[in-house]
Amino acid sequence: MTARHLSTLALLLLLAACGKQGAKLGEGSSEITGSAGAAGAHQASKELVKCDAPVATLALVENPNGYTLSGSYGLPSSPVPLIRLLAQQSGCFRVVDRSAGLKATIKEQELKDAGILRQEGNTVHKGRGYEAQYSLTPSLTFSEQNAGREVGGLMAQIPVLNKFVAAAEQVKLKEAQVALLLTDNETTEQLAAATGSVRVTDLGMGGLVVGKLGGAGGAGWANSNEGKVIAAAFLDAHNKLVVQVRELAAKDLPPPVATKHGKT
């Protein structure tokens, strides 16, 4: 067994003894991956909680206070695209776009009004957009703590293991705390709220993370351990939110999306 393997084994044993090992969605974590659309949720997380039918149209709203990250990790500036995937995969909502997609729609209408686009047969018409009956606002706080000093201090007192103190100092505890707030746009009433959290131990050895994070797909959230932790926390919050959403009566929804097979 190589020195690297011995070091990893020693750290795992010590972290288990300290009660800091593992990732927990709420008390654990999971993957966020796959797609959503006319074919339904494809390759979605097995842990994703779903609804039998949508209850309303939904717009995702950026948090006006931004998102708190205790460092620069090269993550996307907003988690909203990731949450939009969750919302559509769950089948609880018909998701309407209030960001880049909406801007593109407005631009097409402006081009038509300016006479640049064809007039006859044009499918871009005013007054056909769907309203967002509900809005969902996320919040995010991500932090990283240096646990290596404590672990290294323990290892320094143990013969043989004291050779791996430098490796132990790379250990970090990564934690994400998130929340999702659901608002009825007609009444302004907050209908539901849910929090999610994930904590993992990052051993700092080639990206080795103790815990079942897997691949957190979507908009760059799979590129780092930090992104995976944050994505898993939003999955946790979303699953808790769905429990509340299932109890809501469905609003009058727009016509279902047409498919080439005539299915709705």
Rg (C-alpha, Å): 23 Å
Describe the oligomeric state of these chains in a short phrase.
Answer: single chain
Q: How many strands appear in the DSSP assignment?
A: 9
Alpha carbon gap, first and last residue: 58 Å
Tally of separate helices: 6
Low-pLDDT segments: 16-30, 159-168, 210-219
Structural class: alpha/beta
Description of the molecule:
The chain has six helices and nine strands, in the order H-E-E-E-E-H-E-H-E-H-H-E-E-E-H. The chain has 264 residues and is of the alpha/beta class. Helix 2 packs across helix 6. The longest helix is centred in the last third of the chain and has 21 residues, at 225-245. It is globular. It starts with a helix and ends in a 19-residue tail after the last helix.
Quick description:
With 264 residues, the chain is α/β, with parallel strands linked by helices.
